[in-house]
Automatic annotation (TrEMBL):
Coiled coil: none annotated. It comes from the Bacteria. Pfam families: ParB_N, RepB. CDD domains: ParB_N_like. This is Chromosome partitioning protein ParB.
């Protein structure tokens, strides 16, 4: 981390004096697991902060460990163990962004938005690539897509459905040239099979719905009333009765066909004609129902 010095030791600091300078929305299930684990065995890994002064008061900016910090707060901790490093607020923010980039489980677009945030703060593409361990081409492409508001293409890149180079080509193309961009990607072996199908769907959705992603509001299921339960039961029973009727009809038709074939094969003259024309074979399952044909090839 630029401008920082290694932490010397763990200190207990007031938890209400720690500020999160790059807050993230956490996955609720994972957060609950962190809380449960800390409640059972305590905080095994301290958070990392930098110290700052406001007059005679001492405060701290979080460098990494937001999930642990929030878990301790939810458990009512007054103090939290922390490693104190020396760094300015800008370095703390960059370290927090780098940590988010390195996190394996992040929300869709978090990694990409963090790259954009570092670029907004004046870091050159080469610097961002070096700090995050990502390629220059990837960082440059993401920055370009972010600047153009291409959220739909960014999500495709994030999910692995589309290489960053193809996404940039599509973003730079007008409507008439987008298909040419996909064709070129196919010829260059960048999009094949399922990836090509997925890319076409993204392009179609982008054309119909725009570049931005629209988050659907969460719908809370309403509890079923007794009338609704009865209606659902009656509909299910009706479907099952219809299924039984269809199965009985199929059974009756099979019996009719079986008897018809049995009657025909009992006619020696007719059966002889079938044999001469090589039409005497029947499906094996049907032959099993007619003793006279058992052993014949189906």
């Amino acid at each position: 981390m630029t401008g920082s010095t290694p932490a010397q030791q763990v200190e207990m600091i007031p938890i209400d004096r720690v500020a999160v300078i790059n807050p993230r929305v956490r996955n609720r299930r994972i957060f609950n697991e962190i809380v449960e684990n800390i409640a059972l065995v305590g905080l095994k890994r301290p958070i990392t902060v930098t110290r700052r002064s406001e007059g005679e008061e001492i405060f701290y900016d979080l460098v990494c460990g937001q999930g642990r910090l929030e878990a301790c707060r939810s458990l009512g901790y007054a103090e939290v163990p922390a490693l104190i490093v020396s760094a300015d607020q800008e370095d703390c923010l960059v370290s927090s962004l780098v940590e988010n980039c390195a996190r394996r489980q992040h929300r869709a677009l978090d990694l990409l938005q963090d790259i954009g945030e570092m670029r907004k703060r004046g870091y050159a593409t080469a610097e961002v690539a070096k700090k995050t361990g990502l390629s220059y081409e990837y960082v440059n492409g993401v920055s370009k897509l972010l600047a153009q508001g291409e959220e739909r293409l960014l999500r495709a890149v994030e999910s692995g459905a589309m290489p960053i180079t193809v996404a940039v080509s599509i973003a730079d193309a007008d409507d008439a040239e987008v298909q040419n961009a996909l064709q070129t990607a196919y010829e260059d072996n960048l999009l094949r099979g399922r990836k090509l199908v997925a890319a076409r769907r993204v392009v179609e959705a982008r054309k119909r719905r725009g570049k931005k992603l629209r988050t659907e509001p969460h719908r809370v299921a309403k509890p079923l009333s007794s009338e609704a339960l009865v209606r659902a039961y009656e509909e299910d029973a009706a479907r099952k009765r219809a299924l039984i009727r269809r199965s009985e009809m199929a059974k009756a038709r099979l019996a009719f066909v079986t008897e018809a074939i049995r009657s025909l094969i009992e006619d020696e003259a007719f059966f002889g004609i079938l044999e001469e024309e090589q039409l005497a074979s029947v499906p094996a399952r049907l032959a099993q129902r007619i003793p006279e044909l058992v052993g014949e090839d189906g």
